[in-house]
Amino acid sequence: MKTPSRSVLGKDKEIRASHRQDSADLLIFILLLTLTILTIWLFKHRRFRFLHETGLAMIYGLLVGVVLRYGIHVPRDVNNITQSCPVNSSPATLLINVSGKYYEYTLKGEISTIEMDDVPDNEMLRKVTFDPEVFFNILLPPIIFHAGYSLKRRHFFRNMGSILAYAFLGTVLSCFVIGLLMYGCVMLMKQMRQLDGDFFFTDCLFFGAIVSATDPVTVLAIFNELQVDVDLYALLFGESVLNDAVAVVLSSSIVAYQPQGDNSHTFEVMALLKSFGMFLGVFSGSFALGVATGVVTFTKLRDFQLLETALFFLMSWSTFLLAEACGFTGVVAVLFCGITQAHYTFNNLSAESQDRTKQLFELLNFLAENFIFSYMGLTLFTFQSHIFNPMFIVGAFIAMFLGRAANIYPLSFLLNLGRRNKIKSNFQHMMMFAGLRGAMTFALSIRDTATYARQMMFSTTLLLVFFTVWVCGGGTTPMLSCQRIRWVFNMSIAEGSERRSTKQESAWLFRIWYNFDHNYLKPILTHSGPPLTATLPPCCGPLARFLTSQQAYEVRDCTDATGAHTSSGPAYPGATGSDDLDRELTYGDHELVMRGTRLVLPMDDSEPPFTDTHRHLQM
To answer: Annotated region Disordered: where (predicted)?
Structure first.
């Protein structure tokens, strides 16, 4: 019987050791999340508001990063051999001939001459450093989808014009303001010989795009707990949801800027127009793909709730991957897929699947978000290519605040010219203060750290996120008191005032869309709304009967039996009345209300499902 050679036994030993190391690395992140959850419970029990769970996760990540970087050292392997072999490039794979046997080695990264003696420590730190694609393909989709799936339609559409202005015009304006200011800072650094590598204007614009993505999760959590003005909540949440998508597409368009000629960083009008066309094409294509996927997510498995929930989950996640595979942006696609599924597909799910999907995506959002923030703290010490330049960092902080100011104040002035419900100055100051940076900014900056400029941007971005989450997030409650922004404690009074103002303040464009959606799209795509036999002309009777499901007739009969339309008269045929729109806007979000105690930011505004004007508020 032939015994294994020493090389084979040594290889098996290395594999087992690597497996144990990988398990220990994953255990570190599990323990981080566990510790974060326990501390969140303590903070909620004691009603501490000065630090959000994301800030806690970052602190724990920092502590673990310090231990991994300075407290643990792997013994040096005496069998490691350093050989010099001059080549013109860095191949991804090397075949080494050792005594007639070929061994394959893969490229793991550049090692400086200073770190030659610390290769084992570097290997350990690399193992706790994830591939950036993990963030985009695994951790970001549930966060973005949950934002769209739990979007509160009533307050979003009441402020739709303002939200779109802040998210699109404001993000682009902020990007260019930050980019121009940082370009001036880089030019000054070159004059003072503070740069050790190339840093172009397109790099500055890219930095402006990723820093313009806001994530005020800490502020919104406090807003929800204190029941701050719902319009302020809607403006901040709606802007943060959409401007993440805009920032992703904008950064991709800047990277795609390619003038003709040898110098790819010169200004050229045609290249600029091409990038602008790419921005519009990618965004509109991603939007269309997300909406189409959300619309076609039919489930006929109501009798098998587990299968129904699994199919819904896979269709939702596949939207992100499908968009990325087609050359679009998965963030935009999965966001609008979530919004569309909440509006249409949710109504077709069984009651058990409705609860399951809400709880599933809420859990995934909570875990992914806290994992990213804990990893941010960890990577401050485990990332091996940090470049901290004090001048660039100071310039980035100044540019970030000026870019946020250029987004909020000029646009608020222009929007107030046409708004009936004005955006007050204290709201504007709060929106300026609440422009935190978070998961999207981090994910965009860590996706490419190959060049000197990208490494400096990533290191600076980490500091920006830490400062805004800890300082701005922790100062939310004092800032609310300073700006004298009201806290709503009597929700029944607030509900009554909002219902009275909804009909007058809803966007006229949305009223037109609502009539079309309520009378034609919902009857086709869901079992709610009036049957098509009641809204289509008599000449379309056969088609209407073919497209109308039996459940739609049952829902209509049930609605008529409860007298839902007795106060406003028949809602069909013809256009839907304004009272129906008011009822839809006021009560149409009941299916997205979460029950129980929430550990993560509730994306709704904690409204109860309203079915009776005399029913008490459900907690």
So the answer is: 598-619
